[in-house]
Amino acid sequence: MKIAHIEFPDKPVFLAPMEDVSDIGFRLFCRQFGADMVYTEFISSDALIRDIKKTKQKTFFSKEERPIGMQIYGSDPDTMVEAAKICEEADPDLIDINFGCPVKKIAGKGAGSGMMRTPDIMLDITRKVVKAVNKPVTVKTRLGWDDNSKIIVELAERLQDCGIAALTLHGRTRAQMYKGEADWSLIAAVKNNPRMHIPIIGNGDVTTPEMTKQRFEETGVDAVMIGRGSIGQPWIFREVKHFLETGEHAPKESFRWYLDILKRQVQESVDRLDEVRGILHMRRHLAATPIFKGIPDFKATRIAMLRASTISELFAIMDSVENLLLSAVEQ
Length: 331
Description:
The protein is of the alpha/beta class.
């Protein structure tokens, strides 16, 4: 599979762009575990052209992350064009336009999935960004604004006509946010539309190797994108790739192996930010990771872990979990 000049193996699996999640540290872990492409966090076009330091930092990446997509959002065509040009200077492999984020502070201002209510502006932005930069431009969007306006099949054709190199579809409307089940039938409808010739990437509720394989087989998508299913378990990409290649689950590692990866993530976050912000940033991963699920009498330990304020305190609590497991086995 190819997106413009970028070549991928058969059935590639991508890390979705996620605010406060797909930062440089997490992207590197996911690439090391087999993600075929990663994306930056959401980059505000308004903030980028005003040279806001925190936003500018989102354009930084390392060569080990390639191929990488840089994702921008906004509602004004001229601002989006200017932001795309700034991103191009950072030299990502492609520029992705976010027409999919459902959160109120973005969609409510007409950006992200708010564009589903103004498709003509969406298309105008897309055409102008494609024309303004030499990098491949891709789009990520949703099925529609709500159940009464699932316009994606026709809209996909129009986006393709704007010159985009690939289209990522999240199988929900904006109104659904992240509730209910993702509807992959419309993703399949777009992929199997004979007028579509660009790669179609499917996204939404992909949390297991089996589900990834099923999505490829049932819809024919060119790639699958994993978002929330990677939080707290960057190794999911290794597990998915192994299952796609062999039809079998990868052998389970020891509890200590998974724990050490989380600790490495914590250490990277602390080194990059500082102790306080680094630990705060990692709490989402620690809360979501599946390795602590099913441990008897874990509630108090979990609360203590998520309240820890120093790396020494946090690591001591994390290490104590192994003793909880050993005690449970002995009982």
